[in-house]
């Protein structure tokens, strides 16, 4: 089969490709990955993160990146799968590939006290970011709900006045 034909069939069914990618991430939660594959996925994750940052920085119109919330959800799920896989390998084998080893050597530099302090800082920052992010999402959802209420109320009043609906007393 021609490669361009296969590519055109795949791009027509992007929802299926997305669903398969999500299922493969969930499989990462369950099945231990080989260190070579984990290194490739970590490199892909770093590249993917840089592409997301660059695209979001250089996007001039908000509608040009309307897929951003879904993309961010997918990236977060992918990173969670990588975190679980690397944690499993570190705790099980003591080694999770060259990327993790190189990054650990670079950040910690052989000093475990520095590593512990950096780890605590990252945990606190992540906790604050996630908490504030969830709070902001809830505020925006509540605002959209409140903004939609007057229109719904006017629609019900108009239907009642037109006799489309009746009040039950």
From TrEMBL:
Which superkingdom is the protein from? Bacteria
Q: Spell out the coiled coil positions from the record.
A: none
Q: Answer yes or no on keyword Transmembrane helix.
A: yes
Q: Which UniProt keywords are present, listed alphabetically?
A: Membrane, Transmembrane, Transmembrane helix
The UniProt entry's GO CC annotations, sorted and at most eight, read: plasma membrane
**Database matches in PROSITE patterns:** FHIPEP (PS00994)
Q: Which GO terms describe its biological process?
A: bacterial-type flagellum assembly; protein secretion
Tell me if ATP-binding is a UniProt keyword of this record. Answer: no
Protein name, as recorded: FHIPEP family protein
Transmembrane domains' residue ranges: 16-34, 40-59, 71-91, 111-130
Q: One Pfam family name from the record?
A: FHIPEP
> What organism does the record attribute this protein to?
Halanaerobium congolense
